Amino acid sequence: MKVHFEELDQADDRVIARIIRDNLENYHLDIPGTAYYDPELDHLSTYYRKDNGKRAYFILKDEDGKVLGGVGMADFPPVPTCAELQKLYLSDTVKGLGLGYKLMEKIESEAVKRGYTAMYLETHSNLEAAMHLYERAGYELIDRPESVVHTTMDRFYYKQLV
Questions:
Q1: I want to staple 76 with a disulfide (CB 3.0 to 4.6 A). Which of 9, 84, 125, 127 is the partner?
Q2: CATH number of the domain that residue 104 is part of
Q3: pTM of the prediction?
Q4: Spatial separation of the C-alpha atoms in residues 19 and 95, rounded to whole Å
Q5: Which of these, 125, 122, 7, lies nearest to 70 by C-alpha position?
């Protein structure tokens, strides 16, 4: 499958929000304390374009321009030069094709370009495929940081990039 990345713009906000919500609903995580209720979820392009290049969100599209998924990053203030990997989700129609690894590679390379040396992420134990992806990509399970915002998340990972 031929795919390409684009930085998220307003035209694709609704589609990526639907992909994220569908995933969370499928895993019974459409509950408070998850990204499902993030106030910026319907306007991710606006949220990720703020903060002088410290945030970014990339969507993965097929050759016809259909949004297949996306991944974001933002500054993680508790750890200097660390970015938080955020909202990595794929449409159900393309899961199992290795595209999650492409999203991981994209966001990690962008993080390094922007001066980050490490990445942090949080997820939930219901998301077994996601945890498998993170671990295969070299992320190590860590204790819950004190600064966690999504209170329902129960798995935390860290990876040194450079």
A1: 84
A2: 3.40.630.30
A3: 0.93
A4: 12
A5: 7
Largest CA distance in the chain: 43
Surface-to-core class of residue 81, CB atoms within 10 Å of its CB (0-12 exposed, 13-18 middle, 19+ buried): middle
DSSP string for 5-39? EEE--GGGHHHHHHHHHHHHHHTT--STTSGGG-T
Looking up tokens 């993680």, which residue turns up?
76
User: Where would I find the H helices in 39-98?
Assistant: 44-48
Indicate the number of domains in the chain. 1
Secondary structure of residue 85 in the 3-state scheme: strand
Q: What is the pLDDT of residues 90-134, one digit of tens each?
A: 999 999 999 999 999 999 999 999 999 999 999 999 999 999 999
Strand order across the beta sheet in which 155-160 lies: 3-7, 56-62, 67-75, 82-90, 118-123, 155-160, 140-142
Domain that holds residue 59: 3-160
